[in-house]
Amino acid sequence: MTVALAGNPNVGKSTLFNTLTGLQADTANYPGKTVELNLGITKYKGKTIGLVDLPGTYSLDPTSEDQWVARRAIIEERPDVVVVVMDASNLQRNLYQTLQLIELEFPIVIALNLVDHAERVGLRTDYQKLSKMLGTPVIRMVASRGEGIDELLQYLTNESPIRPAKGSTFYGPRIDQTVGEMEEAIKRSFDNNASGLSAHALAIRLLEDDSEFSELAASQSSQLSESVQVLRKSIESEYHEPASLAIARERHALAKQITEMVQSKATTRPLLSQRLLHYSVSPYTGVPLAFMVMVGIFVFMVNVGGFLGEVTSFLWATYASPSIRFVIVTAVGNGLVSHVLLWGFDAGILGAVSVGIPYVLTFYLILSLLEDSGYLGCLAYLTDTVMHKLGLHGRAIIPIIMGFGCNVPAIMGTRVLETKRERILASILIVLTPCSARTAVIIAAVGVFAGWQYAAAIFGIDLAVMGVVGLFLGRILPGKTSGLVMEMFTFRRPRISTILKRTWFRFSAFMQMALPMITLGSLMLGALYETGWLQILLAPVNPIMLTLLGLPAVASICLVLGILRKELTLQLLIALAVMKYGPSASNLLLFMTPIQLFVFGLVVTLYFPCIATMTVLGREVGWKSATTIMLSTIALAISMGALAFRVLPAICILH
Amino acid sequence: MPRHIASKRERSEPAEMYLETIYRLSENEKVVRTSALAKSLGVSLGAVTNTLANLESQGLVHRRAYRGVELTSKGKTVALRVLRKHRLAEQLLTKVLGMKWSEVHEIACRLEHAMTSDLTDAMEKLLRNPKTCPHGNPIPDETGRINRQNSQPLSNFKPSDRAVLVKITEEKSDMLRYLASLGLMPGAVVEVQEKAPFEGPMIVKVMGATYALGHNIASVVEARRV
């Protein structure tokens, strides 16, 4: 059987989905849309259940892409059951969409989630009464603790199929009567309507001026369109406002009424979280707080990341690498082939792991913490003004922050932005954002050998570049910006298990994508290198590197190979240096001056995104735009690097 | 004397009706279409065209070829005067005589032409200077000035203000629908919680949920202080 999960954003839908499907998940797209659906499978008592995780939406009006996709998925896929996940502390607002789903007459089971938070503030729900009023089963759930999940599965796999919700809801005599008349008109116009909805459901949609179904009706029968106009007018004359608003108003009123009848009022006013929210968003306290949080995150990532990096390298060098070498050498001897294979399976995998574990993993941990606590919303609020100058709005801060971990999921995350212009703008900024790999290079190469001030300087320059580019593009790119409309959540005590699970889920998804790509790329580049082709191809480039950027020949090879993964530049630099200058060259200062290291770090940060980012970028904004962006970054990197090379010796104290 | 008054009333009543209706319709579209006018008054297009020509010769309206008609400043003054009488009459009927506000419009339409300015002022005093009619529309004062919406953009409000949303001036119906589905629709009561400086976003509470709204969104939402 197939089950769809629907509900507002941030109600724990993904927690439920992840708990049910474990770590296996696929994604699917509707052609021409960028919103993705997560698909998974779960088994219970021998029965297999296919799960579709719909995007979190506030309503099913087709006014935004995720709402359109959510609705289309339900109508087209015809799941056997729609599980509606609702936030018990926010019942009234959550009920709006639930009422829409009931109108659409799908078989529904309601999972009333986050009951622990609700009960903590004194909100007690009468589940029986709610179930009776809505005409659907209601299950009490705390998905993060696993409560209610068994009950849900029990319900789903029960022998008797769940009946479709009864579509009649009370919106006032005028509207209900008009809906009835609309229904009749629909039945008269065609007996097999192609909308996928019942006549009753379609009637409400048409009266609400639903763009998708109105077009459908118009194409079917002009007489029907006329009836729609007439009936809509009759609602308008009674309510003195457009029919769609009148119906929305009644729906809100019904949601409020139901909530008041099934829930007791909150007794404990959440004063602490209220006050925390106030301090987090008010400009005098919020901005310094945000700054401290950012610094804290940076320090955490540097220290914990650095430590994990060392541990990983050590473990790899001691255990993994020798075993791999042994296997390969035994299998194919010690010649060219074995060297190439080692590039892929020793150096390549090490590359993925040595950035993934220390930096991507810790980053996702921090991101989950920010999300779950609700602080991410505050960050979006605080940054909205700045984002607006860049042609974006506050919510864009989320993918940009993700860009500090890895550009790939960050660019995919730009899908939350409404217009194409915003998505392109955000993607450009993300490509310039120093991801974990670049951070690793900056810290480990420049920071360690040249001094932490210079590492900080590179970050500063990078952020400045982002700002300038953003401001500039924000002015010249055509198109309008939408605005920030974002729900603010009260601070919740984040649950460790949820955070860990979500972090692991994201991290493994990242590794699944990155690892094969890196290994493959490493193999290819290894082949080019070992056969000598790479040096031949790069020969003309070396003089340019030297004159413009002042970098030694080995650096150019590293930069090219850095297209695979940026942190490879560092490792290869060390490896190549050792090969050329001997083992002591792992102290980079022995053959590169601090200025050269600085320039190197700066170029690595700004140039060409890595191959994984390039793929995603091409997919999200189109290959034409992507190529332009990529070429621009090279130009930017070279010019900034050249500038640094000329200017630095003059102004600074690096010897 | 009686003849003077009679002829004034004969000339004014339909004229006043027209001017008032044009003013009311002009709240939706600047240049009022003749067909809309005809529909609202319940008369034929021919009759409307005739009367409009008459009004134009009196300098009360300005006709625009193929587009419709708009009031001159003289016409606007007359319209506002009538509107004032109409809305005060409605208030009298509902507040003092206890009639239902769905019924009072028709009667007020007839009363307004019989009211002298002295009577009107006396009514206003009795009703204690109401600012709006029972439907919420503003009442012009005795000099003819009208505070059109008595509302301001939501972005003007400060933390701990409460306001009721009046209108969303956003053209795109998509945004309108989206905001409506969140509960941000005319009639909704919002409570402003936070406001960022430098034309930044604000945080409002509506229908039990809390939202951050960017400045460009808050500035197209009109609201009235509560």
Structure notes:
The complex is a heterodimer of chains A (655) and B (226). By secondary structure, chain A is an alpha/beta fold. Chain A has three domains: 2-157, P-loop containing nucleotide triphosphate hydrolases (Rossmann fold); 173-262, Helix Hairpins (Orthogonal Bundle); 283-651, no CATH class. Chain A contains 28 helices and eight strands. In chain A, strand 2 and strand 3 form a beta hairpin. The longest helix of chain A has 50 residues, at 283-332. The model of chain A has no long low-confidence stretch (mean pLDDT 82). Chain B has 226 residues and is of the alpha+beta class. Among the domains of chain B are: 2-71, Arc Repressor Mutant, subunit A (Orthogonal Bundle), CATH 1.10.10; 152-225, Ferrous iron transport protein A (FeoA) (SH3 type barrels, Roll), CATH 2.30.30. Chain B is 45% helix and 17% strand. In chain B, the strands form two sheets. A six-stranded antiparallel beta sheet of chain B has the order 3-8-4-5-6-7. Chain B has a two-stranded antiparallel sheet with strand order 1-2. In chain B, helix 1 (2-25) packs across helix 2 (34-41) and helix 1 (2-25) packs across helix 4. Chain B is globular and about 55 Å long. The termini of chain B are far apart. The A-B interface holds A 58-59, 61, 63-64, 90, 92-93, 96-97, 209, 240-241, 244-245, 248-249, 252, 256, 259, 278, 281-283, 377, 380-382, 384-385, 388, 393-394, 481-490 and B 135, 173-183, 185-187, 193-194, 196-201, 203, 207-217. Strand 8 of chain A pairs antiparallel with strand 7 (209-213) of chain B.
Count of DSSP helices of chain B?
A: 8
User: Rg of chain A from C-alpha positions?
Assistant: 29 Å
What class, by secondary structure content of chain B? alpha+beta
Q: What is the percent of helical residues of chain A?
A: 55-70%
How many strand segments of chain B?
Answer: 8
The separation of the N and C termini of chain B measures 49 Å
Greatest interface and its participating residue counts: A-B, 43 and 35 residues
Q: So, CATH architecture of the domain at 152-225 in chain B? A: Roll
Mean pLDDT of chain B: 81
Side-by-side strand order of the widest sheet of chain B: 3-8-4-5-6-7
Q: What does the oligomeric state look like here?
A: heterodimer
State mean pLDDT of chain A (0 to 100 scale).
82
The percent range for helix content of chain B is 40-55%
Radius of gyration of chain B: 21 Å
In whole angstroms, the N-to-C terminal distance of chain A is 70 Å
